[in-house]
Write a structure and sequence with these properties.
2 domains; mainly alpha; globular; DNA polymerase, domain 1; three-stranded antiparallel β-sheet; two-stranded antiparallel sheet; 336 residues; hpI Integrase, Chain A; 50% helix
């Protein structure tokens, strides 16, 4: 089959125009919204022609969208199913490889899948951070995982940070939406906020900036806080840091799954996500939020810090058991 070059944005507009006489206006609006994220991802990845799109890239998009959008499985399934329909349509106009749509994967839902409960537990997080403090101090992975756990930021927010957003005197960091220079954050301007930092996190950031951060700038002339030798860190790199250092064998030297570590394929640099115990950035964020709630932080304070509404916090992030919540409420009995 001979393919004809087509860019993602043009493909979306042609797809919507083709469907507008057959579906409702609400459906067109929904598909434009869902597929708009795919077009934005293609732009970030510099994918300008869908002719060369691969199944691996579609999987990378799924992971990016899951983390960037804080998606519950039901929402993720809806978005990926819409993408599958779109890719199949692009195939029909010779714009994408034949049968590419069958490589678009989406979750298989069960009864409770509208709420995700995978998270990094407190004891594991503390063991990982202790390992990083001892053996990878003020490295990029140390900075990334410490910020994910302590500030509960999404990876998009961490990627968006500039050095100037960090204020060591006030021990705070500012999350700013800058879509015009390539760092849009979740919820746009409503996602902007100041986040207080502990003494330990500030010391680590100071040492990272002074001693270990690659001295690079972005194309927009900005100095990203978390950078690589190529400039601002990529989302895939942030995600990889999380998967690699949440493998138990890294921090404990042991495998809870009975595998021979030297022979385990998940020890490969790019295969860390294949470890059954490694977790995504979202699971780490969820663990940080649950830990804060378990330490009796007020729901509003946690929500403001993590940029999550109390309703969403209660439904999708709070992993405390009903008994744990009861015991925490017990402390208020004396005031009745």
């Amino acid at each position: 089959m001979s393919l004809e070059p087509i860019d993602p944005k043009t493909a979306l507009e042609l797809y919507l125009a083709d469907r507008e006489n057959n579906v409702t206006e609400a459906t067109i609006y929904s598909h434009r919204s869902r597929l708009g994220h795919f077009v934005r991802w293609c732009d970030e990845q510099e994918i300008t022609n869908l002719n060369g799109l691969t199944g691996r890239q579609l999987h990378e998009y799924r992971l990016w969208r899951r983390d960037e959008g804080d998606l519950a499985p039901a929402t993720e399934k809806t978005q990926m199913d819409t993408l599958r329909v779109f890719i199949r349509w692009v195939e029909s106009i010779d714009g994408a490889p034949e049968d590419l749509h069958v490589k678009v994967r989406s979750p298989n839902l069960t009864g409770g899948d509208n709420v995700r409960d995978v998270m990094l537990e407190q004891d594991r997080a503390e063991a990982i951070l202790e390992y990083l403090r001892r053996y990878e101090y003020a490295s990029r992975p140390h900075v990334v995982i410490a910020l994910m756990w302590h500030t509960m930021m999404r990876i998009g927010a961490i990627r968006a940070l500039d050095i100037d957003d960090y204020n060591p005197e006030e021990q705070s960091i500012q999350v700013v939406n800058r879509p015009e220079s390539g760092t849009r954050i979740k919820n746009g301007r409503d996602g902007e906020r100041f986040v207080a930092l502990s003494d330990e996190v500030c010391m680590m950031l100071d040492d990272w900036i002074d001693q270990r951060r690659p001295k690079t700038k972005t194309n927009a002339g900005r100095k990203s806080l978390v950078s690589t030798s190529h400039g601002r860190v990529h989302r895939t790199t942030l995600r990889g840091d999380c998967y690699r250092f949440t493998r138990p064998c890294v921090s404990t030297g042991e495998c809870p799954h009975g595998r021979e570590i030297d022979e385990c394929p998940a020890t490969e640099y790019d295969s860390a996500s294949e470890c059954p115990s490694s977790v995504s950035p979202h699971a780490l964020r969820r663990g940080g939020i649950t830990h804060a709630l378990s330490e009796e932080w007020p729901m509003k304070a946690v929500g403001d810090r993590a940029n999550v509404s109390e309703q969403v916090l209660e439904k999708h992030y709070d992993q405390r058991s009903a008994k744990e919540k009861m015991e925490q409420r017990r402390g208020y009995l004396d005031s009745l």
